[in-house]
Here is the input.
Amino acid sequence: MPILSPRIRNIVTGDDDGWGVQTRAQAMAREGREIILLTMGDHDFPTAKPIREACSAALATGRTGYGSIHGIAPLRKNIAKRGSAVHGFEVDPELVVVSMGGQAALFAATFAALDPGDEAIVIEPFYATYEQTIRAAGGVPVTVTTNADRGFQPDAEILRAAITPRTRMILCNSPNNPSGVIYTRETLEGIAALCIEHDLWLISDEVYHSQVYDGAHLSPASLPEMRERTFIVDSMSKSHAMTGWRSGWLICPNADAATCVMDLFLTSAYGVAPFIQLAMRAALAGGKGPEHEIAERYRYRRDRAVEALTASARLKVLPPEAAMYVLIDLRHFAPDAERFAYALLEETGVAVMPGGSFGASTEGHIRISLTAPEEKLIEACTLIAGFADTWGET
Ligand SMILES: Cc1ncc(COP(=O)(O)O)c(C=O)c1O
Here is the structure.
């Protein structure tokens, strides 16, 4: 019997499974229990009608053949125009490669940056697939902690200490999931300086740049000497409520990198479906309106959720500057946040993510997604606050 390659076996390890609470919540829902699911970063509302209609129109006119692996030119032009306004430099449409979601863009960039056995620095707290993506590329994830009490801004000296002769890249996510923190200019300059000093690639995951409530987004690619060593990951999943469409892209540092990424897609997805690309183009052709509307909806939810949670003096809420999550610090009264999350689910039917799912730096925290209709979200936050107040009494 042939054996499977260890390369594919060791992508998801036992330690990575942060979805236990969600799995339990879904089982409870199947048994008829009323559950409010605040675990995943998936919207509770559908993609806007004009985008869906653009897809239907493309299907109706028979746009069902192979899609362009690079991405159709008018779409890449729209992406480059939007990207130039967002990332702080003139984006060349030739360097944009359309991908199946931000995840495939992340996968391609990681493949491009790493040789087997190379180390990749991942900054905590991090999006749950980062370590797995690095392992899929044959790399070794090296996690670097940040401190809740310093607002989860990475410290350049701690990053420096993690660099070895095998380090080839740093993976950076600002605005950050799960913390909602935007890295400061000083933080990003510190990361950029290390990339330049040690000749590292930077993968900059900027999928939350459209959902900024306080402060402003700064792309590290706009810093001096960084453009040529940065891959930017972007996606319409969050900005345009298009999670299921798998609609993202990579902005490559140069033409050679773009060609190699296309070769990778040639041998894997073979491009994004043309009817999806046409819907993406229609969404971006509409300008900033649709994404602004979604960001405003999350801003409203953020404000209401933070207000409801802070009804409990025990909950230390970190109001997010961006994105669609709220991180809550329980360390001073419920340091075992996983136990808290399971007990919260059993007692109230509210499902949240234990912070340990995003690395050791968020142990003792829980994360809620703002992805429930306003009334349900506030009900859930009120239940969390009430549960926190009684924690330890029984
Ligand atoms: C930080 C971050 N990067 C990338 C992704 C992947 O997004 P996509 O749906 O575009 O693959 C997510 C999804 O939650 C995310 O939170």
Q: What stands out?
A: The CA atoms of residues 103 and 129 lie 8 Å apart.
